Amino acid sequence: MEFIDYYKLLELDKSASQADIKKAYRRLARKYHPDLNPDDKAAQARFQQINEAHEVLSDPEKRKKYDEYGKDWKHADQFEEARRQQAASGGGFGGGFGGGGQSYSYSGSFDEDTFSDFFEQMFGGRARARGSHRGGHFKGQDYNAELQLRLSEVYRSQKHTLTVNGKNIRLTIPAGVENGQTIKIRGHGGPGVQGGPKGDLYITFNIINNTNFRREKENLYSTEEIDLTTAVLGGEIHVRTFDGKVKLKVKPGTQNGARVKLSGKGFPKYKKENQFGDLYITYKVKTPEHLTAKQRELFEELKKSGL
To answer: Are 198 and 189 in contact (CB under 8 A)?
Structure first.
């Protein structure tokens, strides 16, 4: 397995802060996103590597392991456990791996083959015997990806194709998914070690609001402008909902800033078939400008009457 320097990949040095890592990831993820490079296999591969680097370096514990073990960071716990077992059995690590009167030296980094040899040398037949049911099979690395969608795209469930390590993954994105929400796709991460299961793919959604509605979970909010006469006398207006327009009765004497609720006209509830939130509409009463002489006279009369 070719070693990939995650710091170099994100154009950072080892002293980078978490804020630096997040900023670099977002900049490069946008640059190499498959949606912006649909026919560029190299860009798609780079995008996956960037996600992998971010997944490791953004997690302080994983980053610590990576700094010590390099690309073999995911085996760090097994290495440490092996050291503890060897020390407990009377061996030692001094200048090499002791055990059974033999000494096994190690330099460089582990790959999957040397990882297997490492346990074979240290524990011999015991490693083979136990490897079949514990300690010998390790889950592959989990991958992280960010998927950017418009708010209008997640009003209904939709199918979407992601490219991960050159493989297309077709998935259905449920309506109502929220900004920042993460879902797990099992078995689409890195390959397992020693016959272990594949890792998982975690997708975080970046939802861009391309509408005039404000969203809070499954509820929507909007502002509708009404003229003064409608506010005073009442009437009917057409208001926008997410999937069209509806008629709405305005009560006489409606005040500026008054709010009404349209039940079931909000956003779909995540993974709840045919269930929707509510739409809240705030009225903005428009004050008339450029009055005619007659109109002004009428308002003067209303003023005198105490209205």
So the answer is: yes
Question: Per residue in 35-57, pLDDT tens?
Answer: 788 888 888 888 888 988 898 89
214-304: CATH number: 2.60.260.20
| pLDDT tens digits for range 180-218 | 898 888 888 888 877 788 888 888 899 999 899 999 999
* Burial of 1: CB neighbours in 10 Å, binned 0-12, 13-18, 19+: exposed
pLDDT in tens, 223-257: 999 988 899 889 999 999 998 999 999 999 999 99
Distance CA(111)–CA(37), nearest Å, equals 32
Query: Domain 6-129, what fold?
Result: Helix Hairpins (1.10.287)
For residue 70, count other CB atoms closer than 10 A to its CB. Answer: 15
User: How many alpha carbons fall within 13 Å on the CB side of residue 110?
Assistant: 21
Q: Crossing angle for the helix pair 41-57 and 60-69, nearest 10 degrees? A: 110
Domain 143-208 has CATH 3.40.50.300: no
Looking up tokens 């498959």, which residue turns up? 34
Nearest to 66 by CA among 136, 105, 106, 10: 10
**End-to-end Cα spacing for the chain:** 82
> Can you name the residues that pair with 202 across neighbouring β-strands?
144, 184
285 Cβ partners below 8 Å, 6+ apart?
225, 226, 227, 228, 231, 254, 255, 256
Shared fold status for 143-208 and 214-304? yes
> Does residue 262 contact residue 205 with C-beta atoms inside 8 Å?
no
CA-CA distances (angstroms) from residue 193 to 59, 75, 162, 196, 285?
22, 9, 24, 5, 66
What's the pTM value of the predicted model, to 2 decimals? 0.54
| Domain spans, the chain | 6-129, 143-208, 214-304
